[in-house]
Amino acid sequence: MKKVLLEPFEHYTEKKLLGIGILGTLIGCFIAYVFHARFDGVLDVHFVKAIEIYHPFLDNSINIITLSLLLFITGKIINKKTRCIDILNACLIARLPYYLISFGNINNYMLMLSQKLLNFDPSQPQLMPIGGVDLLLLLAFAFISLLLLIYFLYLLYKGYQIATNAKGALAIGLFILAVLIAEVISKYLIYTLY
């Protein structure tokens, strides 16, 4: 089980990875819709008051396509034999654990807490709008979200590394650059479209 969670690209065929990735993405998008989560950037998740059913599907499609395209381009720089399907599978599979962040907003809980904190005036700490339990839950959510982000990036790099046969600092640098540029482009496209 440990190998499957840490090295899925070495244990499944490309067709199985593609099927799991697409099915998992569809389920992840539906969960995001139910819990009002917007994946409005390759690395971003925000909770909103109202959401249309197509928002998570469009958000994640833009994120996956943008990320796949940029990683494919950098993959070709590293290894001319890099295949698009392998990069796409890496992007699809790596994002699956990231969709779990949506569960943090059950009954709009995280949205409510974040809105209270945004309205907080730090010059009046005695008027802290949330209690100790809420603060602990918010910190736990932030910690779990950070772990899921790290796991997403780990899986993405493992998939990228296998797809491109990447080694060394150039591969790491191109990977980081591609992810950051994909974040900017996806965010721009999502907010330009709606």
Number of helices: 7
Percent range of helical residues: 55-70%
What proportion strand?
under 5%
Number of structural units classed as domains: 1
Shape: elongated
Distance between the termini: 41 Å
- Overall pLDDT, averaged? 91
Structural class of the helix and strand makeup?
mainly alpha
User: What is the tally of beta strands?
Assistant: 2
> What is the helix/strand order?
HHEEHHHHH
* Main beta-sheet annotation: 2 strands, antiparallel
In the sheet with the most strands, the strands line up as 1-2
Protein name: Yip1 domain-containing protein
Organism: Mesonia aestuariivivens
Keywords: Membrane, Transmembrane, Transmembrane helix
Record the SSE blueprint.
Blueprint: H1 2-6, H2 14-34, E1 37-38, E2 46-47, H3 54-78, H4 84-95, H5 109-118, H6 132-164, H7 168-193
Antiparallel strand pairs: 1-2
Helix pairs in contact: 2-3, 2-4, 3-4, 3-7, 4-6
Transmembrane segments: 17-37, 57-75, 96-115, 135-157, 169-191
Protein name: Yip1 domain-containing protein
Keywords: Membrane, Transmembrane, Transmembrane helix
Explain this structure to me?
- The chain has one domain (2-193).
- It is elongated.
- It has helices at residues 2-6, 14-34, 54-78, 84-95, 109-118, 132-164, 168-193; strands at 37-38, 46-47.
- A two-stranded antiparallel ribbon has the order 1-2.
- The protein is mainly α.
- The chain is built from seven helices and two strands.
Label this structure with key terms:
194 residues, mainly alpha, two-stranded antiparallel ribbon, 7 helices
